[in-house]
Sequence to fold (91 residues):
Amino acid sequence: MKRSIRLHITGSLQSMFFDQFIKDNAVAHSVKGYVRHLREGVVEIFLEGNNENVEAMILICTRGPKYAQIRSVEQKEEKFQDFKEFKILGF
Fold:
């Protein structure tokens, strides 16, 4: 079953390293979508794919890479948009 979810993550994140970490894991889990920074300390991640792959990515995103300090994660179910790849979007 296909699933789409939007995450808003706040915390102390190293932008370039965090974004690449999310993209590498998304590609490894066959999840499409994007990661982008909305404002200082808030990262938006849109994930879509098979339910089990999206669930795995949610766990990865809430833990983050080794030195990330994640303070909060908000998640919202979204309409499936059929992204073709996972992208890192600019500011």
